[in-house]
Specification:
By secondary structure, chain A is mainly α. Chain A is 64% helix and 0% strand. Classes of the chains: A mainly alpha, B alpha+beta.
Chain lengths: 83, 363
């Protein structure tokens, strides 16, 4: 999980230009002023770029905080590795 | 889930959101706005309780986001389909980190309609919608402008990028010179924007005639809107009250034998750009129909006319010196049935501003 979170932080920095160390597993959109619906789309693109994944609408809706982002990413990475 | 259907008791809060956030205006909300919203979302002739407008309820009935949905009946080769047009999409700025916009859109897209569609998305909402799976429908996203008074139009176009006060000042200062230039230009036969009187005869377009025209001149398209006297009457009456756009002008055009060969509907406004809702008719008369429209707008003081191109008629618009742009609002569509989106994307649809949410402005 730590490795995933570290890369998620990189995606946050790329999407919102913020200090990545401010992002923790407990971070929710209310903690990041630019994380609105448009920001969420930008963040999803950054995550796709960082992890080499692609997210559909259901993924986007599920990733409503950092904990859920890590869960979705891990699940997708696990499926990729299992394939 | 904080997203729920709009109820009538929400209207004052929705009006407040619309006025202060979407229109960036100061309070108080004009009383007429609540009436218009109520009329639009609770009395329109296409009301479908399974396709409601949506609000984002932050708790205790506090509405912080809204997505208006208008259901329209259409046909694909005679088979009925339901299109849910989304519009007036707004979220209170201090609630945007709740991702209310995403939740409203996802709920809307998951509805029972055949197509989710919008015809006036700006660049921001287009980016968001595309990421959620909507497709830009280019054949219905190309706009045309036809200057009628080129100097006035140039001033108008430049002043649009200025602030409200600067814009008014610029127009006031430039108006005398623009009038001289346009007056001189109107006398030159080489002026590409000179008006031409046509031999077509104009009459007021009534609902029955429009219904006949819509059926007769849809040009073999696979997808078309379904109207009856009641729904078309309601729509045109609603549009007639959109006074900010100008006077709604509905014209049927007859040839020498008295046969209806075409029509146009537009908002006529002296000193401004007339917004065209719909143009149609027999293929061989389109250029004359355009000439008639341009002349009608010009003699009533219009500086230009603007509309969405019917790409099948692009040659005619081009020959009549129209200028094309994509800077006028995007049409986007989403459907779980990809063939429906493909059909729109190929331009195989008889759609105009009359058939979407553009013509349902509440002011």
């Amino acid at each position: 999980m730590d490795g995933v979170l570290e890369k998620v932080r990189i995606a946050f920095k790329s999407a919102f230009n913020i200090d990545p160390q401010t992002i923790t597993i407990e971070t929710v959109p209310e903690n990041v002023p630019a994380w609105d619906s448009m920001g969420h789309v930008t963040l999803a693109s950054s995550l796709e770029s960082v992890f080499g994944l692609s997210f559909d609408v259901d993924d986007l809706m599920a990733m409503e905080n950092v904990k859920e982002i890590c869960r979705v990413v891990q699940s997708k990475l696990g499926k990729l590795q299992g394939a | 889930m904080p997203v729920r259907p709009l109820i009538e008791d929400d209207i004052p809060q929705v009006a407040n959101l619309y006025w202060t956030v979407l229109r960036s205006r100061k309070l108080p909300v004009p009383p007429a706005l609540e009436c218009k919203l109520r009329e639009l979302y609770f009395t329109n002739p296409w009301i479908d309780s399974t396709l409601p407008s949506l609000v984002y309820d932050a708790g205790g009935g506090k509405v912080v986001g809204f997505l208006g949905v208008i259901s329209r009946r259409m046909s694909v080769r005679g088979k009925p389909i339901r299109i849910a047009w989304g519009g007036n999409f707004v979220v209170r700025p201090d609630s945007r980190t709740s991702l209310a916009g995403m939740h409203l859109l996802a709920t809307y897209m998951a509805g029972g309609q055949d197509i989710s569609q919008t015809d006036s998305a700006n660049d921001l909402s287009r980016a968001l919608l595309k990421r959620l799976g909507f497709k830009t429908i280019l054949p219905f996203s190309v706009h045309w402008v036809r200057p009628l008074r080129p100097a006035h139009y140039a001033v108008y176009a430049i002043s649009r990028s200025a602030g409200r006060a600067a814009s008014a000042t610029l127009r006031a200062v430039a108006k005398p010179l623009a009038s001289v230039v346009d007056g001189m230009a109107a006398r030159f036969s080489s002026n590409p924007f000179r008006q031409i009187e046509t031999r077509l005869q104009a009459a007021e377009l009534d609902v029955e005639t429009l219904l006949c025209c819509l059926a007769e001149f849809r040009g073999g398209c696979s997808l078309w809107p379904e109207y009856d006297v009641n729904s078309l009457n309601w729509l045109l009456t609603f549009m007639e009250r959109m006074k900010a756009y100008g006077e709604l002008r509905k014209v049927a055009l007859h040839d020498g034998s008295g046969k209806v060969v075409g029509w146009y509907i537009y908002f006529r406004k002296s000193g401004a750009v007339g917004e065209v809702v719909q143009i149609g008719g027999a293929r061989q008369f389109i250029k004359e129909i355009l000439d008639h429209l341009f002349h009608d707008a010009w003699i009533h003081g219009g500086v230009a006319v603007h509309g969405v191109v019917d790409t099948r008629l692009m040659d005619d618009f081009s020959e009549k010196n129209c200028i094309f742009t994509c800077r006028g609002g995007w049409m986007l569509a989403y459907s779980r049935k990809s063939d429906l989106v493909d059909l729109l994307d190929s331009g195989d649809a008889f759609l105009s501003r009359l058939d979407g949410e553009w013509c349902l402005s509440v002011g």
